[in-house]
Design brief:
Distance between the termini: 27 Å
Radius of gyration: 16 Å
Strand content: 25-35%
Number of strands: 12
Largest sheet: 4 strands, antiparallel
Low-confidence stretches: none
Order of helices and strands: EHEHEEEEEEEEEE
Helix content: 10-25%
Shape: globular
Number of helices: 2
Amino acid sequence: FYFVQIAPFMYDKNLEDQKSQKIREAQKVGLELTRTGMVVTLDIGNNYNIHPGKKREVGERLSNLALKNDYSINISAESPSYKNHKVINDTLIIRFDYVELGLVFKNSSKHGFEIAGSNKKFYKAQAEIKEKNLVWLFSKSVKEPKYARYAWSDTSSANLFNSEGLPASSFTTESNY
């Protein structure tokens, strides 16, 4: 069963009521079932049209999942996915799966990462890719980081990709958001 993660869209103009990032997070739970796959569309959505026009890209990503998983074709089909994190001093380090040859930032110097301390007050984080599957996050505003999140709004767009051009999904390290 392959499915498409909901694309960015301005569902609610009130920043406090934004929920699509939580729906995207809930959709990822489906990946815990065997024989499932998810297409991330953070890079091909349209914030002002709930039905984005880039259907071909979505179809190609879905077909690549089927070719890899059902027909054993050796191609890249999964988007980078949060695996775990650790904290070293004032830096929070995120480890990703499905990075292929490595992670890259595209489209923006503002990477969409935020970090917070135990108070869960999030601040924009500076992000650096280290090794092929690690992103180091830090902020002058957070001395003891505990939580991180990426693309955590209704209208977020992807700027973290694997080497094959597939966008990372939004995520949070909080267990109760």
